[in-house]
């Protein structure tokens, strides 16, 4: 695991918050409905009526909003990135007036159940592999879980080319706008080229991308993937082993069908583990 202190500081990370702030301007009721449906799927079709919900790495605030729409009695959203904090506050002020919520600029490593209490559902989708110390982040997040609660998270699946993507992301996160634009153009060209042998229509895929990918549009997702530094990944069997060490049991998961080479990157496996 990575423990270098520079990876744990906000200054060393990719500017996720700026990307989320840009994306949030495009959010419509359709994206909110998609976020609600995605969260409901992870809950096994249920809701959050009367429950405390912790959103670690809240990004745009879309999934904190989804939790409130599913009946959460209280939502606490936290993020290390101040742009994400501001975007989440605006999202909830706009769409969740009258509900009980808070947004804090706070690292997962600074969460303390003695200070904030424990939560019925701890949620962190596609975040903890970007903290600089994924295993420690998982441990800190799980510590916030109340007895009988569920820990819902998603992590990048390990691929053979993860070593390459670590190098690429570290470069991209600190590159200038021109370098990032060139990298995006190259990635999209390769993505488009590889659509043909798989029998996929590139234009249709981009047009329907928000529906198929938790509401994120294609361009913002490309920028997010290329710049996602720090970066770690994990195989499902390793996740299961570590959750067992934390005293959590498997409730449900939505894993990728197979492990790819990783030429275009990696997707996320979704997990739900419970403290029973």
Topology:
Elements: H1 5-8, H2 16-24, H3 29-42, E1 52-56, H4 62-69, E2 74-79, H5 82-95, E3 101-105, H6 113-116, E4 119-125, H7 134-142, E5 145-156, H8 162-173, H9 177-195, H10 202-207, H11 209-212, H12 218-227, H13 236-245, E6 249-254, E7 268-274
Helix pairs in contact: 2-5, 2-12, 3-4
Description:
By secondary structure, the chain is α/β, with parallel strands linked by helices. The chain folds into two domains: 5-159 and 232-274, Rossmann fold; 162-227, no CATH class. The protein is 45% helix and 17% strand. The chain has 13 helices and seven strands. The protein has helices at 5-8, 16-24, 29-42, 62-69, 82-95, 113-116, 134-142, 162-173, 177-195, 202-207, 209-212, 218-227, 236-245; strands at residues 52-56, 74-79, 101-105, 119-125, 145-156, 249-254, 268-274. Strands 3-2-1-4-5-7-6 form a seven-stranded mixed β-sheet, with helices on both faces. Helix 5 links the parallel strand 2 and strand 3 (101-105). Helix 2 (16-24) runs parallel beside helix 5 and helix 2 packs antiparallel against helix 12 (218-227). It starts with a helix and ends with a strand.
- Which architecture of the largest domain per CATH? 3-Layer(aba) Sandwich
Distance between the termini: 28 Å
* Shape annotation: globular
Determine the CATH superfamily of the largest domain. Vaccinia Virus protein VP39
- Helix share, percent: 40-55%
CATH structural fold name of the largest domain: Rossmann fold
Beta-strand fraction estimate = 15-25%
